[in-house]
């Protein structure tokens, strides 16, 4: 079984994430969406909300599993038997950042990182931009899946 881990904070899940996940499930037998827990980070959405956003968005996709984890991603991959880490790339800056992480992960383990380019119409979307739009009362509904629409 080809199992991949798609790690992130997903604060919140965006259409960019959604795009990578939908395309990733065509490449792997199972895609584990792993919400990282970082006690030092201030999140807009609770862990429960972020989990619900993802589970609802992919409730009809049996190849997707949603979990939470702490610690190093490669250690969690070993724990669950994932041989691949899936990452999305929006731009050259993402590539440089992700390349360094992928090389480090490869040095620490046998886990391969697979990169997918975000679809052209979604390459500008990031969770930080979505959070800014929400904080400022803007219409963020075109940036996130329907499951993320919340009332403030």
Protein described:
- There is one protein chain.
- It is built from five helices and five strands, in the order βαβαβαβαβα.
- The protein is 36% helix and 20% strand.
- The radius of gyration is 15 Å and the shape is globular.
- By secondary structure, it is of the alpha/beta class.
- The longest helix has 17 residues, at 92-108.
Counted beta strands: 5
User: Distance between termini?
Assistant: 42 Å
Q: Which strand-content bin applies to the residues?
A: 15-25%
Order of helices and strands: EHEHEHEHEH
Examine the secondary-structure arrangement and name the CATH architecture. 3-Layer(aba) Sandwich
Rg over CA atoms, rounded to whole Å, is: 15 Å
* CATH class wording: Alpha Beta
Low-confidence region ranges: none
Which structural category fits the helices and strands?
alpha/beta
Please state how the strands of the largest beta sheet are arranged side by side: 3-2-1-4-5
Mean pLDDT: 94
CATH topology title = Rossmann fold
The count of domains is 1
Q: Overall 3D geometry?
A: globular
Give a quick account of the main beta sheet: strands, pairing sense, barrel closure. Answer: 5 strands, parallel
Task: Please name the fourth-level CATH homologous superfamily.
Answer: HUPs
Which percent range fits the helix content? 25-40%
* Contiguous helical run count: 5
């Amino acid at each position: 079984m080809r199992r991949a881990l798609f790690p992130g904070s997903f604060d919140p899940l965006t259409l960019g994430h959604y795009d990578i996940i939908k395309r990733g499930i065509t490449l792997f037998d199972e895609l584990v969406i792993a919400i990282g827990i970082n006690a030092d980070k201030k999140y807009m959405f609770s862990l429960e909300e972020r989990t619900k956003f993802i589970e609802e968005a992919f409730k009809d996709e049996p190849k997707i599993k949603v979990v939470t984890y702490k610690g190093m991603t490669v250690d969690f991959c070993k724990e669950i038997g994932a041989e691949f880490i899936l990452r999305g790339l929006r731009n050259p800056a993402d590539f440089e950042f992700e390349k360094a992480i992928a090389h480090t992960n490869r040095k620490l383990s046998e886990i391969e990182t697979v990169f997918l380019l975000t679809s052209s119409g979604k390459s500008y979307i990031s969770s930080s931009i979505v959070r800014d739009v929400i904080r400022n009362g803007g219409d963020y509904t075109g940036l996130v899946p329907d499951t993320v629409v919340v009332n403030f």
